Amino acid sequence: MMFQLSDYDYDLPKEMIAQTPCENRSDSKLLHLDRKAGTIFHHQFADIAKLLRSDDLLVINNTRVVPARLFGVKETGGKVEVLIIDYALGIKNLKKTGFFQCDCLVKASKSPKKGAMLLLEKNVEARVEQVKGSVSEIRFLNGNKFLEFLKKFGQIPLPPYIKRDDPGFNQKDKEDYQTIYASKEGAVAAPTAGLHFTKPLMETLEKKGIEFAQITLHVGYGTFVPVKVNDIRDHQIHSETFSLSMEAADKINRARQQNRRVVAVGTTSVRTLEFVCDEKGWVNAQTGQCNLFIYPGYDFKCVDAMITNFHLPESTLLMLVSAFYGRQKILDAYKEAKDNNYRFFSYGDAMLIE
């Protein structure tokens, strides 16, 4: 097994990092990896309708990205940027106390201390309640009106490798960086494999007989936090809130009972399914925190195939797909994608690994 962080490194020219999605989402490229045959084929994403089996069950993550970036000033007048990283906790506190209060990342020339007041746009006030290392717990003082403010003035927290000339609000990303089936607010990053689906494509899949099951995993900022240990087994992976309904659990168990494939759309769906299943791959409806770290050596119990994007070097997501089809085979596939001008990362192209 390959457990060194450097085993998951690869070179990628900056120009191959997609800065915008395809105009028509399903026009993106699709690299098809057949694990049994050991073959690689090139397609458009829309071809997935031909590649999938008519009795497949697609498990999609219906989380919706929250416009979680806010701008303002400190009491001293210095500029400050706030990124909400635990929206679910904020909602919980809002219901309980009348205040939206949660963990945030604060960017400023000098980090505000406990008790510091922040003045955001439209005179929305916030107070730093606690400082826990690099994370600040912040209480937003406008109570129930805060959610309206967030929806209107918050910005989508794009990944750091997507650059915008205009540092201000990018209205287009507010829709582009959401799946078409996003409905449960709470993520600070999109489940990007789902960005390739369009309504017509989903209708085509359903007409073919393919079934969809929706789960929720609110992708956290931890998905972008780099692995800093040499031995990947020592890495402490982030925890993310998930929910699996009785309806979805029944669909997944029924598919397994009927020997139909469970196809996970995205690494978030993979992690959730593997976290909630038992040794035989059966799942139970539940809500909780998923902290499963999948790397080579992991034995998959529920997921039979996956649709995923191309992931950052040395990332936990690259380790996950390497666990599914072998590190060297995945790196070879990435080289094939580079040689054929595929676009990488969140707004980039996709893979089907079956």
Structure description:
- Helix 8 crosses helix 9.
- The model has no long low-confidence stretch (mean pLDDT 95).
- 42% of the residues are buried.
- The protein starts with 28 loop residues before the first strand and ends with a strand.
- The protein is globular.
- The protein is built from nine helices and 17 strands.
- The chain has two domains: 5-65 and 175-353, QueA-like; 69-153, Thrombin, subunit H.
- The protein is of the alpha/beta class and 354 residues long.
- It has helices at residues 48-51, 87-97, 145-153, 173-176, 199-208, 246-257, 267-276, 316-325, 327-339; strands at residues 29-34, 39-44, 57-61, 63-65, 69-74, 79-84, 100-108, 117-120, 125-132, 135-140, 184-187, 211-217, 240-244, 262-265, 286-290, 305-309, 350-353.
- The protein has a nine-stranded mixed sheet with strand order 2-1-17-16-14-3-12-13-15.
Briefly summarize what is shown.
With 354 residues, this protein is of the alpha/beta class.
Helix-strand blueprint:
Elements: E1 29-34, E2 39-44, H1 48-51, E3 57-61, E4 63-65, E5 69-74, E6 79-84, H2 87-97, E7 100-108, E8 117-120, E9 125-132, E10 135-140, H3 145-153, H4 173-176, E11 184-187, H5 199-208, E12 211-217, E13 240-244, H6 246-257, E14 262-265, H7 267-276, E15 286-290, E16 305-309, H8 316-325, H9 327-339, E17 350-353
Parallel strand pairs: 1-17, 3-12, 3-14, 4-11, 14-16
Antiparallel strand pairs: 1-2, 5-6, 5-8, 6-7, 7-10, 8-9, 9-10, 12-13, 13-15, 16-17
Helix pairs in contact: 8-9
Indicate the mean pLDDT: 95
Taking all Cα atoms into account, the compactness measure Rg is: 21 Å
User: H/E series, N to C?
Assistant: EEHEEEEHEEEEHHEHEEHEHEEHHE
Major beta sheet, strand line-up:
2-1-17-16-14-3-12-13-15
In CATH, the topology of the largest domain is named: QueA-like
Helical residue percent band: 10-25%
Our measurement of the CA-to-CA distance between the termini, rounded to an integer number of angstroms, reads 21 Å
Integer tally of domains = 2
Please count the helical segments: 9
CATH architecture of the largest domain: 3-Layer(aba) Sandwich
Please provide the count of β strands: 17
Low-confidence stretches: none
Q: Main β-sheet: number of strands, strand sense, barrel status? A: 9 strands, mixed
